[in-house]
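Hi team,

Below is the intake form for Pyridoxamine 5'-phosphate oxidase N-terminal domain-containing protein from Microbacterium aurantiacum. Please confirm the fields before the structure is written into the shared record.

FORM ID: S-0412
PROTEIN: Pyridoxamine 5'-phosphate oxidase N-terminal domain-containing protein
ORGANISM: Microbacterium aurantiacum
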Amino acid sequence: MPTLADLTEDGRRFVSDRHLATLSTIGPTALIHAVAVGFTVADGVVRIITGDGTQKVRNVERDGRATVAQVSGPQWLSIAGRAVIERDPAAVRRAEELYTERYRPPRVNPKRVVIRIEPERVMGSSGLFDAS
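The structure came back. Fields below:
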């Protein structure tokens, strides 16, 4: 099973070019809650910045299962794992810096938190991962 460390040059470009994705979490009625997000991949983890108290934050706090999926034409990537909410100012700053590199500077949000996903399963289209 591939990991983020197995991304090819094309795979690394795919997770660093400006693409939106979906974040899927488990909602309060056990249905899947999917929402469009920007995300970053660095240090072997996925980070999503958002406002504290949003539905996605409440979902992660109740049930940490989460999947980020990105698609662009024939290329796709899915990263599933356990998510936690980070409120530490240094963690939020790091996530904002990464977001700025991939997308643009985020708007000011004093209630910003980070959804941090530790990947357990990574899947994607051919060419995004080393074949070895």
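SUMMARY LINE: Residues 89-102 form the longest helix (14 residues).

Thanks, M.
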